Amino acid sequence: MTQANGNSSRNGATASPGRVLVLTPLLRGSSDGGRTPAARLAEAVGLALAINLTVAHAEVVRLSRYTPATLIGSGAVETFKALVEAEAVDLAFIDAPLSPVQQRNLERAWKCKVIDRTGLILEIFGERARTREGQLQVELAALTYQRSRLVRSWTHLERQRGGFGFLGGPGESQLEIDRRLIGERIVRIKRDLGDVARTRGLHRKARQRVPYPVVALVGYTNAGKSTLFNRLTRAQVLAQDVLFATLDPTMRLVRLPSGREMILSDTVGFISDLPTDLVAAFRATLEEVLAADLILHVRDVAHPETAVQREDVHAVLRDLGLGDAIEHTMLEVLNKIDLLDPATHEQLRRQAGRDARVVPISAATGEGCDELLQAIDRRLAATREVLDVRLRHRDASIIAWLYEHGEVLGRRDDTDYSYLRVSLDPADVSRFQRLRSDAERPDRH
Q: Which residues of 388-414 are buried (b: 16+ CB within 10 A; e: fewer)?
């Protein structure tokens, strides 16, 4: 039995159920993507704890087959009915997708609220999202999920913040919302998200005019992305040891060892079996990854399922059309090395010495973070062009611009000219050419 403290209310919203039964149904003989049953159950418990629930009991349910009426079969339903009553369970979390019929049958049998993996993840996302874009994206996913269920707990439509009401208990007031109303709301949200996406596109074009290279953090949820973001930027982004601590993209300017600057972007964490509708709804957020010059895949190498988590992240990136980026524009950041035994720690250090695409760090202690910044600097510099430039001394503003936006590799001056060898990003090369052309126009002399 797993115990954890929980709160009876959240963000001033209607009180949510506190005691939860966590069940992870697994077919006998299935590999479950290489995950062990214990790891799958631990992740399910982590999801419950992320929404501040008290885990009254957690168990893997071994099944020979899935049952259409209840998923887990009548015998298991009766067994857990007694446990629900004995443990005063308010909510049963089934770590699997449930059909509306299965959900309704389990609720009738157990006399408590029942929620599946998709519903709980949506509830967590509804709690965490803070920006207008994040809230719209989560609501779109929630509406799509609810459309097949039609009448559930739609209290979230009456609240400013704090979840989506999926956790409400039986007997609370429910709004009768039909497919037409849901469809109309989905159309409005998609229109609003289109406006948000256009605004983000304008911001991205503005950054390209500056321009700064964009480096995006990705990784499995709770891998330490936000802790690393805070370490590198000295920002105060929410960084907690809970799943999905960060759901809204955060961007900060970071100065690299060479003196050049980059934009570092923190993004939502991935998880196995992430609802398809939610991935689609968050595509606008993940556009920062699509537009990134470099992707940092932050991995929790102390986690027993780190290799499986790596494949989950790669699968999502491939779904986003970033298969080539996995090979060419990604650094693997092996985080939490402070939690490893000395032998494994040393083994990762040797691996990093042989493979420039791997950087072991501890975001918590700072170990390896200087090496990470140097590795980022090298990877971004590899895409730069080296130019030999001759400028008149009177073009001092252009020379200063080159020092600010590029890396001056050498300089020689004579009576009339300055001769510079400079390394520039491709976008800066075109900017420099325009600046020099403007300076050489006859009307400028």
A: ebebeeebeebbeebeebbbeeeeeee
